[in-house]
Write a structure and sequence with these properties.
Order of helices and strands: HHHHHHHHHHHHHH
Number of strands: 0
Number of domains: 2
Structural class: mainly alpha
Shape: elongated
Largest sheet: none
Distance between the termini: 77 Å
């Protein structure tokens, strides 16, 4: 529009037609400026650093090329989670959480210990991370990230409580976990957004074990048996023996504590399965 005005210096608004042309050019110029500013703002949001204060707000999905902070976080997580992030399926919030948990699971001392206060230099405590994940799970996330929230919540519980029982004040969160994963007695893993989740079969298995492991630590809920039994039925090839299942679980988030607990849960479910036949 600016070029048109340069080419036609005679358009000065002296006539109704000229006035109309000038108004149209101004409108198009304003529209272009709006689109340009919106695009710059969107790009800026997508490249927010991993420690941005927006981590507790709307999910933000980074675009390639990732900035340094995102790359540093991804260097701490498994290859499987890296691939999901590269495919645009993990938000900055989830990448941040997975990076911290992966560091904690490896036990190299740079992540926040389970009982550290939220203001500690290492970051947020595991219970605060659970609160973040509950918030994230009700936001507009990708289908697999929505499911992943509940698997990571289960992992946080097991990492925090170890082999002990989860306290009663966490009953609401565990009930929410059960309802989200099993709703009305039917497995929720692949009943919704089926096509979007088909490529994440192994991740869904990890989510099942992680969530079921937390429910197994509750004295008030018995849904763990239903959840894990359904997973064994839904994924028979991958869950029939522990060696095969262990290889899958290690592709995501794993350490010895988690592995021992999940193996106990798996053995219980296999025992129930054999008795039912």
């Amino acid at each position: 529009m600016q070029q048109i005005r340069k080419i036609r210096p005679d358009i000065k608004g002296d006539t109704p037609w000229h006035y109309f042309l000038i108004s149209v050019m101004k409108a198009y110029d304003a529209l272009w400026q709006f689109v340009k500013d919106r695009n710059e703002a969107t790009t800026s949001m997508a490249q927010l650093s991993i420690d941005s204060p927006m981590r507790s707000e709307l999910p933000i999905y980074p675009s390639l090329p990732f900035n340094i902070k995102v790359c540093e976080a991804l260097s701490k997580v498994s290859t499987s989670f890296n691939n999901m992030a590269m495919a645009g399926e993990l938000s900055i919030q989830m990448i941040d959480i997975l990076a911290n948990l992966s560091t904690l699971a490896r036990g190299d001392g740079s992540a926040t210990p389970p009982n550290s206060p939220p203001s500690s230099p290492g970051g947020r405590s595991l219970l605060n991370t659970i609160a973040d994940l509950r918030y994230l799970s009700v936001m507009a996330t990708t289908p697999i990230e929505h499911k992943l929230c509940f698997g990571v919540i289960g992992t946080c519980f097991t990492l925090h409580y170890g082999s002990g029982k989860i306290s009663d004040d966490m009953h609401e969160t565990l009930q929410e976990l059960e309802d989200s994963m099993i709703g009305n007695g039917k497995p929720q893993l692949e009943t919704q957004e089926g096509d979007a989740l088909k490529t994440h079969r192994e991740c869904l298995i990890w989510i099942s074990l992680a969530a079921a492991g937390a429910l197994d630590q509750s004295e008030l809920l018995s849904a763990m048996s239903m959840m894990l039994d359904q997973a064994l039925e839904q994924y028979p090839d991958e869950t029939s023996d522990w060696e095969t299942l262990e290889k899958i679980l290690k592709k995501f988030l794993w350490n010895d504590l988690l592995g021992k607990h999940w193996k106990r849960c798996w053995r219980k479910a296999k025992h129930r399965q054999s008795k039912a036949r």
